[in-house]
Amino acid sequence: MPVMRSVFYIPGNNEKMVSKAPTIPADIITLDLEDSVPPAEKPKAREMVRENLKYAAQGGAEVYVRVNNWETLLTNDDLEAVVHEGLNGVCLAKCGEPDHVLRLDWKLEELERRRGIPVGTVKIQLLIETAKGVINAYQSAIASPRVNSLIFGAVDYTKDMRVKLTTEGQELFYARAHTAVAARAAGCVAIDCPFVAFKDTEAFEKDTRFGRTLGYEGRMLIHPSQIEPSHRIYTPAPEDVEWAKGVVEMFEKEAIPKGLAAVAYQGKMVDTPVYENAKSILAVMEEIEARERQRKEATGK
C-alpha cells in the first residue's frame, strides 16, 4: 500500500507556491488544475505544472496532479499537458461513476504509449465529493487497477447535499465512513477530507484521530502546519510497533510450528486475525520508513 499520510495541494498557477514544493515534507504533492485555478488561468497552470513535475519531486514526495472532471470538457486538455515522465498519478475531481474511471484509464494508457512511458506508471486517485460519487465509490475504485486511493471531499459534498459544512462534521458522517469502507473493500488507501480551519490545531488533531478510527490512513492538507500532526497520527505508535513485533515473533515461534490457532501473549489470547493485524502494522511501518529514507536521500537531511 502506498504511503499517503499527507496529500498537500498547491495551485498549479501559483509560481511562488510551486517553487516551494521541494521544501514541503508531504508524502504526496498535488499540483492542482481544478478548483484552486480560475478558468482563465487553466492554460498557464497546465504549462507550469508540466514544467515542474520533476522539480516538485526533489524533496522526496510523489507528485500527483488534480485534473478537472469530464463534465467540464477540460480533462482531455489537462491530461495532454501533464502526462509526462515524472508524474506519479492523477487525481480525478468529482468522480461520480465507474465510466469516468474507465475513460481516464484508457486516456492514460494512450498517452503512456504515445510518450514512451511504461503502461500503468500513472496511478489514479479518485476524489469522492458528490452524493453520486459516494454511492458509486466502491464500483469506481475497482474500475481500474490503477486506482490506489480515494479522497473524501467534504466541501463539495455538503454543497451537493445542500447542507452546511460545520466544524463538528455530523453532516459528513455517513459519506465519510462510507468512502473509507469503499476504499478498504477495494484495497485502496482512504484519504480524509481537508480540515479548513487550519489555525485550530487542537480541532484538526481531534478530527484527524476520529477519521483514523473510521479507517482513513492519510489526509488532504491545505496548510504546511498540518503535515507534522498528520504524519504523527497516521504513523503507528512505537508501543504498537513493539506489540506487533512481539505478537508476530510469539505466533510464528509457538503457534504455527505446533499447529495451534491461538497462543497467549501479555496475558491475552492471540489468534490468527490478531497475528495478521500485527503483520499489517509492521508492513505499514516498513513502507513509512522506506518513504522517510527516500526523503532523506533526496534532501540530504
What do these coordinates show?
With 301 residues, the chain is α/β, with parallel strands linked by helices. It folds into 2 domains: 6-234, Alpha-Beta Barrel (TIM Barrel), CATH 3.20.20.60; 238-299. Helices cover 48% and strands 16% of the residues. The chain is built from 13 helices and 10 strands. It has helices at 15-19, 42-51, 53-56, 75-82, 98-115, 131-135, 137-141, 154-161, 173-185, 201-214, 227-234, 238-255, 272-299; strands spanning 6-11, 28-32, 62-67, 89-92, 123-128, 147-152, 189-192, 218-221, 262-265, 268-271. Helix 10 runs parallel beside helix 11 and helix 12 packs across helix 13. The longest helix is centred in the last third of the chain and has 28 residues, at 272-299. It starts with 5 loop residues before the first strand and ends with a helix. The model has no long low-confidence stretch (mean pLDDT 95).
